[in-house]
Design brief:
By secondary structure, the chain is α+β, with helices and mostly antiparallel strands. It is built from 5 helices and 8 strands. It has a single domain, classed as Gcn5-related N-acetyltransferase (GNAT) (Aminopeptidase), CATH 3.40.630.30. Strand 7 and strand 8 form a beta hairpin. The longest helix is centred in the C-terminal third of the chain and has 16 residues. The structure holds coenzyme A. Coenzyme A binds next to strand 4, helix 4 and helix 5.
Length: 166
């Protein structure tokens, strides 16, 4: 099991992940390949996003890849927080391939992402989840998350917020 940066090598695997994901909004959004003319065009846009261009803050993205070279999970590490990330997004966003859930991969990719945060120098890591996302809340608690106050948006949706000392 290892982390790999998005590159042309992962085009087919990434596309399979997206197919299996279905129509709902891709999480993390940095892995959404819809609307690009080609995979290289997606990679170029991702590179700009990672540098913090446009509306983005600098961030780094990884696939969690198993020994059979299948992508089992994805993670986006944001290097700092703006108001939206402080309230709702957090430093780290992740998802697990639909057919690979309930096998500990979310817990694993969050643990790996925390190591990367340490390398970047993020010592207090904010990780969030929707109120109803029990699997994600458990993933955060498995990695030492301490719950802070929740954020409630204008429509009443509740985001649970946890800090992890790193
Ligand atoms: C939420 C998500 C990341 C969990 O991934 P996962 O690989 O299944 O999680 P894990 O196997 O590491 O499980 C962590 C814990 O949550 C539990 N869990 C996972 N999914 C669950 C679910 N749907 N309902 C209840 N518990 C669940 C597991 O049993 C495990 O509990 P344990 O530690 O007590 O054994 C995955 O379902 C997913 O990708 N969902 C869509 C994207 C998303 O919600 N991302 C998170 C945004 S904050």
């Amino acid at each position: 099991m290892r982390l790999e940066r998005p590159s042309l090598e992962w085009e087919l695997e990434h596309k399979k992940y997206v197919e299996e994901w279905g129509p709902s909004r891709m999480v993390p959004s940095s892995f959404n390949i819809d609307g690009f003319d080609s995979y290289p065009a997606y990679l170029e846009a991702l590179a700009e996003r990672e540098k913090g261009n446009g509306k983005w803050l600098p961030n780094t993205n990884y696939f969690l890849v198993n020994d059979q070279n299948r992508i089992v999970a994805m993670v986006d590490i944001r290097h700092s927080l703006n108001e939206h990330l402080f309230n709702e997004g957090g430093h780290i966003g992740y998802s697990v391939r639909a057919v690979e859930r309930r096998k500990g991969y979310a817990t694993r990719i969050l643990a790996e992402a925390l190591k990367k945060c340490k390398d970047i120098g993020i010592s207090r890591v904010l990780v969030t989840c929707d109120e109803e996302n029990i699997g994600s809340a458990k993933t955060i608690l498995n990695n030492g998350g301490i719950e802070d106050r929740s954020f409630v948006d204008s429509e009443g949706s509740v985001t649970r917020r946890f800090w992890i000392e790193n």
